[in-house]
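Input C-alpha cells:
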C-alpha cells in the first residue's frame, strides 16, 4: 500500500500535485480542507463551527479532523493507498494518523514536503483567491495567519517524519511538470 503525506505551507501546490499523484498511483485523495469545505457547503453544525476558525486562518481542533480522517479510512477498507493533503497539520494529528493506519495493518510510506518561500506563497494565494472564491485566500492578513499557524504548529512535522526516516524535501517552485517529476522520483526511491 502506498500512503503518502503531501506536505507544505498553504499555496505550496499540494492540491495541484495531489491530482497528478492520485491519477498516476491510483490513490484516494483525502484533503481535510476539502472535507471541511464540504461540511460548510452542506450547512452542518460541524461546518458552521469550522468556518469561524477557517475564516480567521486558524486551525480547527485536532479531534474534528482526526474524526473525519478516521471515518474516511473506515469507508475505504480496500483502498490501494491514500494521499493525505493538508493533514496531518499538528504532531497530535500525525500521531493519530500513525495509530489509525497501524490499526489497519499499514503505515505512512513517506512524506513529501513542497518547499516554497513565503513571499511566493502570499502572491500565489491572493491570485488563487480571485478564481477560487475562497474567502481565506482573498485577504492578506488571513493568509499571513495561516502561514503563521503553519510555521508554529505544522512545520515541526518535518522533524516528526524525518525521525522516522520518511521525510523528503521537494523544490516546489518551477514548472508544474518538473515538480511532478521530482515527486515521482522521490516515490520511486521509497
Ligand atoms: P486547506 O484547504 O488545507 O488550506 O485548509 C483550509 C483551512 O481549513 C485551514 O486554514 C484550517 O483552518 C482548516 N484545516 C484544514 N485541514 C486542517 C487540519 N488538518 N487541521 C486543522 N485545521 C485544518
Amino acid at each position: 500500500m502506498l500512503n503518502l503525506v503531501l506536505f507544505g505551507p498553504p499555496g505550496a501546490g499540494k492540491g495541484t500535485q495531489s491530482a497528478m499523484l492520485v491519477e498516476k498511483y491510483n490513490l484516494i485523495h483525502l484533503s481535510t480542507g476539502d472535507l471541511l469545505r464540504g461540511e460548510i457547503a452542506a450547512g452542518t453544525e460541524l461546518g458552521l463551527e469550522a468556518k469561524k476558525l477557517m475564516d480567521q486562518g486558524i486551525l480547527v481542533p485536532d479531534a474534528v479532523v482526526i474524526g473525519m480522517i478516521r471515518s474516511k479510512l473506515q469507508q475505504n477498507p480496500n483502498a490501494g493507498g491514500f494521499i493525505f493533503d493538508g493533514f496531518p497539520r499538528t504532531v497530535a494529528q500525525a500521531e493519530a494518523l500513525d495509530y489509525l493506519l497501524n490499526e489497519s495493518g499499514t503505515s505512512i510510506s513517506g512524506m513529501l514536503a513542497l518547499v516554497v518561500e513565503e513571499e511566493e506563497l502570499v502572491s500565489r494565494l491572493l491570485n488563487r483567491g480571485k478564481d477560487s472564491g475562497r474567502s481565506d485566500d482573498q485577504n492578506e492578513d488571513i493568509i499571513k495567519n495561516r502561514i503563521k499557524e503553519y510555521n508554529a504548529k505544522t512545520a515541526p512535522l518535518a522533524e516528526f517524519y524525518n525521525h522516522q526516516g520518511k521525510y523528503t524535501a521537494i523544490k516546489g517552485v518551477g514548472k508544474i511538470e518538473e515538480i511532478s517529476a521530482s515527486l515521482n522520483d522521490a516515490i520511486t526511491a521509497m
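The chain has a mean pLDDT of 96. The pocket of adenosine monophosphate is lined by residues 10, 32-33, 36, 53-54, 57-60, 65, 86-87, 89, 93, 136, 146 (CB under 6 Å).
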